[in-house]
Design goal:
Layout: H1 2-24, E1 25-41, E2 48-53, E3 60-70, E4 73-82, E5 100-107, E6 110-118, H2 120-128, E7 151-159, E8 166-173, E9 186-195, E10 198-207, E11 220-230, E12 235-244, E13 269-281, E14 284-295, E15 303-313, E16 318-329, E17 348-357
Antiparallel strand pairs: 1-2, 1-3, 1-17, 3-4, 4-5, 5-6, 6-7, 7-8, 8-9, 9-10, 10-11, 11-12, 12-13, 13-14, 14-15, 15-16, 16-17
Keywords: Cell outer membrane, Ion transport, Membrane, Porin, Signal, Transmembrane, Transmembrane beta strand, Transport
Protein name: Porin
Membrane topology: Multi-pass membrane protein
Length: about 350
């Protein structure tokens, strides 16, 4: 009897301790499952019809959590894996947590995080795009994300507290080249204001193109101003971007998709304009956007993208979507219509998909 009482007392103590621990720590699992039929055309290799993953949004499985450390200070982490619904394989080149992987501290001073993270400039593109950087209509078909994609490795990021709708971000990606602290390093910043129906965001990214062996190269710089205004019956989108230097305008598909005698050249001096609209009705929404690339180099490889889409909400977490986009390339430009994670193979694409978030 005494042994049973001791066991019961011990179990009660452990339960109380566990309850206290769980009360202080919050861990959640989330994700997106997205798959679509995709029909691409216009490329030199001919039309492509396929079932593919991560078209409207990249399919992912994530873990995030925080711990209350007391005094208004919290520890936090996020681990996000990208995967392919059509094949079951890992995304982002096989990285286990290739979408995001970071940890940090948050409090009255703001939030400081360390690891693989989205750049402030990518978050500015996301603000400007009615398609949410997904599906055939996604803005990154034309707009450069940064000099190296939407994420940076080895990154320290700081986000300020919210001052009456105004916030700021600063991100530094260590180049980690021995003997040269500036080679391959990246620096990003953004200022965001949200007040009522208006959001305005200015983002910048600077990529040092030096390497361990190549020195004194010109940096790639991207600056994007994005604004949205919610009228209630419709939401308007606008963006204007300036891109200068090597790696400031990389092509999503660099494999000469149209078979040009001279392969398309990534622009080193360009201007971008985006106009978009999103019209919600119930759980459904219609969206459209127009993007113009003005290449200021001697090659004058301009491009225009027109896209329209319809998302039908089966529930708050599941929707069906149909999106069509077309790009008109000028003077041998090589821009392609892709999806959230694929670059595309031609200048036209149709997506018919389903997406579930959890």
């Amino acid at each position: 009897m005494r042994t049973k009482m001791m066991a019961a007392t011990t179990m009660a103590a452990l339960t109380a301790m566990a309850g206290t621990a769980f009360a202080q720590t919050n861990v959640s699992i989330y994700g997106v499952a997205d798959v679509a039929f995709v029909a691409e055309s216009g490329g030199a290799a001919g039309s492509v019809k396929k079932l593919t993953s991560g078209v409207g949004s990249g399919s992912r499985l994530g873990f995030k959590g925080s711990e209350d450390l007391g005094g208004g200070l919290s520890a936090l982490f996020l681990l996000e894996n990208g995967f392919n619904m059509d094949t079951g394989t890992l995304g982002q080149g096989g990285l286990l947590f290739g979408r995001q992987a970071y940890m940090g501290l948050s409090g009255g001073f703001g939030t400081a995080t360390f690891g693989r993270q989205y750049t402030p400039q990518f978050m500015t593109v996301l603000t400007a795009d009615p398609f949410g950087t997904g599906s055939a209509g996604n803005a990154p078909n034309i707009l450069p994300l940064t000099g190296s994609g939407s994420r940076m490795d080895n990154t320290f990021k700081y986000v300020t507290p919210n001052f009456s709708g105004l916030t700021g971000e600063l991100a530094y990606g260590f180049g980690e080249v021995a003997g040269d602290t500036s080679a391959t390093r990246q620096l990003g910043a953004a200022v965001n204001y949200t007040g009522g129906p208006l959001t305005v965001r200015l983002g910048h990214h600077n990529r040092n193109n030096d390497t361990a062996t190549v020195k004194n190269t010109e940096s790639g710089k991207n600056t994007l101003l994005a604004a949205t205004y919610d009228f209630g019956m419709a939401k308007a989108y606008f963006a204007y971007g300036v891109n200068k230097g090597p790696n400031s305008g990389p092509l999503r598909n660099a494999a000469n998709p149209y078979g040009s005698a001279v392969a398309p050249r990534p622009s080193t001096d360009s201007r971008d304009v985006l106009l978009g609209v999103l019209v919600p009705f119930g759980t459904n929404r219609v969206m459209a956007s127009y993007i113009r690339k003005d290449d200021k180099t001697a090659f004058n490889q301009d491009a225009n993208q027109l896209a329209v889409g319809y998302f039908y909400g089966l529930s708050k977490r599941t929707d069906l979507y149909a999106v069509y986009a077309r790009i008109d390339n000028k003077n041998g430009a090589g821009y392609t219509v892709g999806g959230a994670i694929e670059p595309g193979s031609g200048n036209k694409a149709l997506n018919l998909g389903i997406r579930h978030t959890f």
